[in-house]
Amino acid sequence: MTNPSSPDHGVDRRAFLAGSIVGGAALPSQQDPQGPRADLFLPEEQWRDRMRAPDDGKRYGWVVDVRRCFGCHGCEVACKSENDVPLGNYIRQTIYHDYEKESGGMARIMVPMACQHCEDAPCIKACPCGSMHKGAGGSVQVNYDTCSGHAACRDACPYGAIYIDPVANQAVKCHNCTHRLDAGLEPPCSSTCPSEALYFGDLADPDSKVSRMKRKLEDEGVLEQLRPEKGTQPRAWYAVDADRPMREWEPKVPREGQSYANDAYSVYQWKEKEHGHD
Length: 278
Known about the structure:
The chain has helices at about 15-20, 20-25, 50, 75-85, 120-125, 150-155, 180, 190, 210-220, 245-250, and strands spanning about 60-65, 95-100, 105-115, 130-135, 140, 165, 170, 200, 225, 235-240. By secondary structure, the chain is of the alpha+beta class. The protein has a single domain, classed as Alpha-Beta Plaits (2-Layer Sandwich). It has a four-stranded mixed beta sheet with strand order 8-1-10-9. β2 (about 95-100) and β3 (about 105-115) form a beta hairpin.
């Protein structure tokens, strides 16, 4: 597993954990079930600094053209290879959605999915050991010098984008492959995609490939974001067909407390599920 470098945030882990038991426990939520798991959030003074991105002038983000993806899984394979992701676990996964065409017969939508790198990241607010933080360009990252595998970050993530490594007992997620960005390279998932469905780059640069594509798709009126009701301000946008809106396949994406799993590719999951993952 590639461990991106991250700054020392000066957190005393024992003091932090001792003072965070209530904030980090999975207590019953007292708020709108459509909103974030704020019952997991720590007091603001314990995450405010970690929510601030470095002042590097960059704003990394993603555009995913769902209409172009044909489900080759090249992005997943490249991600697993680059980050030594063990079998049965995923940093990114392609979501399947089968539907009946009006003209008859069945068709499938494939959606490449990964961490949304939220502006207002719930995982950072819930992390009791001070590991989740904003790195280069605002990428949400894990400091593996301090991560204890508490899993509050996984429980707070509205997109199922975090898993707990079964050997290291630490949280793992997409970190935009910042070790490659530092070397002037793209993340392997976007550079590998043969259908040009994945666009990554600096949204603060109006001339970047991702900025130009985002403007083009906004003009076409086809961009949507995943679960905007969560209020996380994700940095990922999805281009969808007007007759196949996001609400049709969104239930297939994991939710709080869940992670990408092998059963997403099981033949028994091909039939549309009405209420998302079991």
